[in-house]
Amino acid sequence: QIVLKPLLIPCILACLVSFVAGEKLPNILLILTDDQDVELRGMFPMEDTVQLLGHAGALFHHAFTPTPVCCPARASLLSGMYAHNHGTRNNSVSGGCYGTHWQRVVEPRALPAILQQHGYNTFYAGKYMNEYKGEQVPRGWNEFHGLHGNSRYYNYTLRENANNIYYKTTYLTDLLSNRTADFLRRASQQAGSEDRKPFFAMVAPPAAHQPFTPAPRHAGVFSKTKAVRTPSFNQPTEDKHWLVRSSRLLRNETIHIIDSYFRMRWETLLAVDEMVVNLVAALNESQSLDDTYIVYTSDNGYHVGQFAQPFDKRQPYETDIRIPLLIRGPGIAPGSHIDTAVSLVDLAPTILAWANVSTPDFMDGESFHELLSTDTDGPFPRSLLIEYWGEGNRNTYNPECPWSQQDELAQCTLEADCHCQDAWNNTYACIRTIRYRDHRIYCEFRDHENFLEAYDLQEDPYQLNNIAYDLLPIEQALYSLRLKNLTQCSGHSCFV
Fold first, then answer.
1. Which residues are catalytic?
2. Which site from 38, 89, 150, 189 is most exposed, i.e. has the minimal number of CB atoms within 10 Å?
3. Considering only CA atoms, which of 258, 241, 251, 248 is closest in space to residue 423?
4. Measured between alpha carbons, how far apart are the two ends of the chain, in Å?
5. DSSP, residue by residue, 449-494
6. ∠ at Cα 366 (138, 131), nearest 5°?
């Protein structure tokens, strides 16, 4: 007897049901922020976004990044693959960020290229991948306005189709908003012609990434706000892996910096909220809003002070791995709430389902289109992979901090009181499970201790108590086996 998993049903239906002659394919707009959390109220500044996309569509309560750092997460979104398959393992060139394998093997068959091959007019604006330097327009884009390097708000260069253009004083989020709105209007005007093409537009603003520079009109809006004091805030702990365990009590000066950065992160997001208003208005004015799926998400989350870690991502805790996900579009009932766990690797298959394109066998994610179009009685059981490879080496040494090159630490700054946020062996894989009354994460670290961490998030949402060494031997062995299978999975074998 063959048993079909719920998330596979729409893929089969898509193969059985074809579009009636002349029926239009939907447009797709994807908005990707940078380092925007949900655990620390990262959506608080986004009042209009929540109203226009979440209340007018679906709000996902368990959306996760597969790798909690920028470049691998973006590669997963675009490719539909986990990092162990697409090869981008961290933000460095040596870690595969916009490296040869990505450019020659993955990018030519990623989501934009597939949509372009199926008649979509594709557009990109904003941060692409951290090591992208504007040598050429990446594969799959008809129109491209890609940022050189990592996020910044002023003094940046964009690869604008055939040219690289420098901007000094134009606030990047505002420029991206205007460029994208202009494309939406032009693409929608074309929609009335006989050669109408549906469009796929992706815009990736810098917020809320460092250097946390708000638009002048928003500076100081949250001047009285402090970082969320979770139960783990400024609480060094002895039951975490060595890098977190090495944290010491944060000084008042460092906490002051954390509060300042927290405020500025929120203030940078206000311009993104205005961007969403601008883009929805452009679609509405051109009578394309009802024909367009709009996706809002982030590449990864962020922590500020949890377990006495100053500020960063890269850790397997809910602050770092949970991301916002809001979607509105054709067939999505306003006010929908989705409790099933989904990952960034699922976005490419879902978008392809909207475009009436079958998911390629190499993609590790699965479409969640049916979650948006049908009533469900509760979350489907799902287990997701979270994986990361530390990028510390002798070149990441900071002589201003009291560590040596031989320690191979990374992300060590005076602002963070020389607490290093990464290391060469900050490498791990986790299985994040969400089932009925079972919310757990189990992690294995590939460090000098082969350390284990596990948390029952139903009972311990702030991950204060590591239960890995309290699990029954058979239970720990089963988690380990399932995790091993996930770290070696490819395509359909990743559906667990």
1. 70
2. 189
3. 241
4. 19
5. T--EEEEETTT-TT--S--GGGS-HHHHHHHHHHHHHHHT--GGGG
6. 25
